[in-house]
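Worked Example 4.2. Read the sequence first, then its structure tokens.
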Amino acid sequence: MTTGTTPKLVEGGCHCGAVRYRVTVRKLEGVRCNCSACSKKGYLHLIVNKEDFELLRGSEALTTYTFGTHVAKHHFCSRCGIHSFYRPRSHPDRIDVNIRCLDGLTPSEFRFYDFDGRNWEESVEALRKSQLSDD
């Protein structure tokens, strides 16, 4: 699946299964970020429109971590600790799903944009422009 192909509805979630969601994957294009948080978590980003994301269960199991500007809402399962989705600072009107938490898709199926999160302020506009084709 690449640009212009049929969207695919997939489910994903945390390790213990407390948090589950459904997401429409419109393109196999992700973002790899080198910031301290993403590097330590091993997070691979799939930024989707809010209407392409549905939390099926687990809102009560979620804990939220924020830092810096507190715009990003880093949700993780309070039981197993897995960060399966969050609201990103770069796209606060969207949902960012961890590709590693999707059922039936692997990171090797995605083409990645490398985002320099260590230099976030200098790099964010290029990331936003790379995501415009999602609309």
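Now turn to a second chain, presented in exactly the same format:
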Amino acid sequence: MSSSTLSRVITGGQTVETAHALRRLYFMRAAFSVTWVILITIFAEKYRGFTTALLVIYPAWDVLGTFLDLRANRYSTSKTPQYVNAVIGVLTALAVGIALQMGVAEALIVFGAWAILTGLIQLVLGLRRRKSIGGQWPMIFSGGQSVLAGITFIVLAHEPTMGITSLAGYAAFGAFYYLLSAFRLSKTANHAVAS
């Protein structure tokens, strides 16, 4: 076996492994988002304490998801965007907890800033991964939509009921995009195996 053939086999194996790991992670993230949407929809108006916890848990979960993403994508040469995303997520969870002491509007502004920043990071990651493993168009669209959603959260911040509803919609779209990406990555893995 020539060194170029061996290199293609190793690269193909790494691509399949990464695609499978990301696929599992995307299904898990979609399940979390759907559960979060259901809980926030049911409890947002009646149980302030539980809603507060849910609003802090969402960015905290994103931090965990980012570290799982790093583990799934361990062959990536640049992990800087994920580390930046994790730091932003930790700061956001803390900022949401603090902002909620002032009011829901302030928390929605924090969420808006977070959605804009993480959307931009997701766009960058999706564009990078599209070249190596494919199946990233849903994540690219999701990143763009996250930026727009963040702007909407800031605009609707002083309409708290509307703002929390828009957060549920944001998480629901996130679940949809994660599912779409998971199914696209199945094609990537199958194509790499066939090559």
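Notes for the reader: Residues 3-194 form one domain. Residues 3-43 form the longest helix (41 residues).
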